[in-house]
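I'm stuck. Please check this protein.
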Amino acid sequence: MKKNTLVMIGGFVIAAAIVFLLMAATPGSSGVELKLKDLLENQEKYKDDFVTVEGLLIEESIVWNSSDIELKFDIKDNEENKLHVIYNGVKPDNFSEGVIVILQGHVDKKDTFIAESVKTRCPSKYEGEDMENYDPELHKNKLDQTTDKK
């Protein structure tokens, strides 16, 4: 074989390996993002898919097994639809009532979700104050105080 042919074949093999590794390493990019209600209504349909779903944590349902590093809990939506979750990994720090849990994984059996990733966020932490309670004079005074210090 000619040297150029060998280089081209080697280049194609390397490019194919890179494409394969990218596809294998990013299952989330080929996944589906669903509402909890939609996932529960169509569990069989999404059984083989990588799914992202979120819901409110039900604190009473938390079972943490530190020796097996296994976390079991339930989430719900605003319509009281519930999903049982099993996660093999470290329990998130702010895992308490009122936290929104974002899950990535797949449906195992009826109403059970095997999570590969568990993330939390607290909605109240990022909300601003109601505009009804806004006092423009107080805001102006605080602004004046900070500019006087300069």
